[in-house]
Amino acid sequence: MKSKVLILGAGFGGLELATLLSEALDKDADVTIIDKNDRFTFGYSRIDVMFGKTTLDTVCLPYDTFGKPGIRLVRETISYIDADARRVTTNGGVYEADYLVIALGADYDMGATPGLAEHGNEFYSNAGADRLRGVLPDFTGGSVIVGICGFPYKCPPGPSECALTLHHYLTEQGIRDKCDITFVSPLSTPMPASAEMAQALMDSFEEFNIRLLRQRTVVRLDEKHAVLDDGTELPFDLFLGVPKHTPPQVVIDSGLTEDGWVPIDLATLETRFPNVYAIGDIAATGLPKSGTFAESAARCVSTAILAKLERGDAERNTGTGTCIVEYGDGRVSYAELDFLTGASLKAVYHPPSIAGKTFKDGFDDTRRERWFNG
Ligand SMILES: Cc1cc2nc3c(=O)[nH]c(=O)nc-3n(C[C@H](O)[C@H](O)[C@H](O)COP(=O)(O)OP(=O)(O)OC[C@H]3O[C@@H](n4cnc5c(N)ncnc54)[C@H](O)[C@@H]3O)c2cc1C
After folding, report:
1. Which of 191, 268, 277, 337 has its Cβ near the most Cβ atoms within 10 Å?
2. Where does residue 335 fall: left (phi above 0), alpha (psi -120 to 50 degrees), or beta otherwise?
3. Measured from the CB, is residue 51 less than 6 Å from ligand 1?
4. Which uninterrupted H or E stretch holds 39?
5. Tens-digit pLDDT profile for the chain (374 aa)?
6. Cα-only R_g, the chain
């Protein structure tokens, strides 16, 4: 009998893991992947959507184009995970597995920042980005805050991309001189894992007159002010926020989190439950919450499962990933990061360039091709 693999979540981590298992096992695979949504979105597309460069319908990839030997993708909402028994309950039934992989990502806790929903805007969800697409054209000038409401959050340079793209957007609208932009970040630099990327971002903020407030978190909004964790009140006319992140409620309700996220062995990504793994944003790795790190985690877990099926050797989690930064003017920079294969973090930085944009387009194309057959 085939071993059953159950993957919870069809995001970066889940899609890559299912693809790797299908490639290795072909029709011998018995993999079920469950997601409540009907389509996948690259997180970075939301910046393009909010600034009106594209639409959600253009960038979303419907799951019904995900077809691979040995893989079944079902659209159901998970309501309970019994990790001990490797049994998962959804609105459609109960699933049991020999290997269970939790890849449910991170959700947003709007309620954690009073006033954010009423007086601000978030750009980290599809709905939030789409809403801003309608809001931004009506903005005629004033103070804009790009503010982060908690750490950790997905894609460390994502909010920097927003601030830079905002500068160019307001310039194109002919109203940049009527606006000031403040970027509030809990981090010590815009990109702690790459000093070169951080310095280049700070140089650009200076060049484009974007005020950076570091090591500050937005804790509350009233109608006209953002209140920071040191009590500072910053006036705003438009607030673009990154909400505090939280595990999906089902993971909390299933008793799988500790200090926020799902604890794992960093080298194997196995949880304290045998043959139960957690990958991507949901896992307490301490590494950046980013799609490419979810992919390298998926590679590690695929080798672990395949090794248990006597198909090769298990490999350790490399903690590798690439952080890409869109400058909003056609240029893109990126940093290739390797946290775990050597004694210390290795970072290879590629400064902003038009060639960087080609690299990003290639990144997008390969995932579309690999996961959705083009
Ligand atoms: C603005 C922005 C820019 C970004 N830029 C980049 C970038 O340039 N490069 C990069 O690598 N990463 C980027 N990211 C981060 C990246 O999108 C995430 O880190 C990545 O998606 C995490 O992958 P994951 O598999 O852990 O979770 P996800 O991709 O979030 O997938 C989790 C899946 O679980 C499903 N799910 C959750 N709860 C349930 C439930 N109860 N029942 C059923 N299904 C459920 C969800 O529907 C979702 O499809 C960006 C993110 C944002 C918001």
Report:
1. 277
2. beta
3. no
4. strand 39-40
5. 799 999 999 999 999 999 999 999 999 999 999 999 999 999 999 999 999 999 999 999 999 999 999 999 999 999 999 999 999 999 999 999 999 999 999 999 999 999 999 999 999 999 999 999 999 999 999 999 999 999 999 999 999 999 999 999 999 999 999 999 999 999 999 999 999 999 999 999 999 999 999 999 999 999 999 999 999 999 999 999 999 999 999 999 999 999 899 999 999 999 999 999 999 999 999 999 999 999 999 999 999 999 999 999 999 999 999 999 999 999 999 999 999 999 999 999 999 999 999 999 999 999 999 999 86
6. 21
Instruction: Say if 165 falls within a structural domain.
Output: no
Ligand 1 pocket check for 16: Cβ under 6 Å: no
- Report the distance separating Cα 69 and Cα 302, nearest Å: 16
In a domain, 269, yes or no: yes
Q: How many domains does the chain have?
A: 2
* 52 & 144 share domain: no
CA 308 to ligand 1 centroid distance, Å = 28
pTM value? 0.98
Give the range of the structural domain holding residue 237, as residue numbers without chain letter: 111-156+172-189+205-244
126 and 223 in a single domain? The answer is: yes
| Whether residue 307 sits in one domain with residue 225 | no
Q: How far is CA 27 from CA 10, 181, 184, in A?
A: 20, 54, 50
| Residues 118 and 233 placed together within one structural domain of the fold | yes
> Residue 271 is part of a domain; what is its CATH number?
3.50.50.60
Cα of 255 to ligand 1 centre, how many Å? 21
46 close to ligand 1 (CB < 6 Angstrom) = yes
| 210 Cβ inside 6 Å of ligand 1 | no
- CA dist 257 and 75 (Å) reads 24
* Residue 148 Cβ < 6 Å to ligand 1: no
Q: What atom in ligand 1 is closest to the CA of residue 76? A: 43
Q: Quick check: CB of 243 below 6 Å from ligand 1?
A: no
- Please tell me the distance between residue 208's alpha carbon and the centre of ligand 1 in angstroms: 30
Q: Is 156 exposed, middle or buried (0-12, 13-18, 19+ CB in 10 A)?
A: buried
